[in-house]
Amino acid sequence: MAAAQGPTIDVVIPCFNAERYIGEAIQSALAQGVGGVRVIVVDDGSSDASAAVARSLGAAVEVHSQTNAGIAAARNAGIARARAPWLAFLDADDVWTPGSLAVRLAEFDRAPATDIVFARLEQFHSPELSSAERERLPFEPGAADARFAGTLLARRKSFLRAGLFDPALKVGEMIEWIARAQAVPLVIGQVDALVLRRRIHGSNTVLRRAAEGGTRASQAEYLPALKRALDHRRAAAGR
Fold it and tell me: Strand 188-200 to strand 86-89: parallel, antiparallel, or no bridges (unpaired)?
C-alpha cells in the first residue's frame, strides 16, 4: 500500500566522497522496520564512487548529483525532491540505531501538536582508525541530547514553515535553522532515546576544517551562523 501511495518518510542523505561509509548509512535507514521509507541521496560533487554505491542499494534509494555546493545546499536539493509527510536527515558517514524512526514517530502520537522532534546521539570511532588516531580524536562517551540533523524527524510541512537551510553557511547551518524554527515558532519535542551513532573518522567536516585552519579559525567559521541565530531570537522576542 505504501508503494502505491508514495513514501511515508523521506530520508535526505547528502554525501561528499563517502563511498566507504554511505552504504552502511543507507542500510541503517532502510532497516528501520517502518513502512514507506525512501532515501534521497544528494551526491555533492564527489570524486569517488559514492553515487554508485548508493545506486546499488535498490529502488528505495534515489540518487541525484550536483556540483559541489556544501552540505546545506545538498540537503536543500534533497528537500526539494521530498514529497512524503515526514522528513528526516542522515549524514552519509553516520548510522541510525534500530528503531530510530519508530521512537521518534511515537512522540508525535503522544503529543500531536508537535512539529519536529529531536533525540539523542552517541559518537563512536570508525573501526578502521588506528589506536594513535583514536587518541588524537577524543570525545565524550555515552548518549547525549542533540539538536543535530541526524536526530531530527519533522512534519515536512512544518519544516518548510521555517524554511530551507542557509547555503551561505559552511558550518553551523543547523544552529541557524533551529533558531528560525523557534522563532516561527514550531513546537519542538525531545525524545529520551538513542537514535543516531555519529562516526568519528578524522575527515568529518568540522574536524577537517579545524585541522586545515586551526581551532580558532574553525570556531570563527561558526560566527555567521551564531549571529544569524541571535538575530532570529531577537526578532522573535521583539514581536
Answer: unpaired
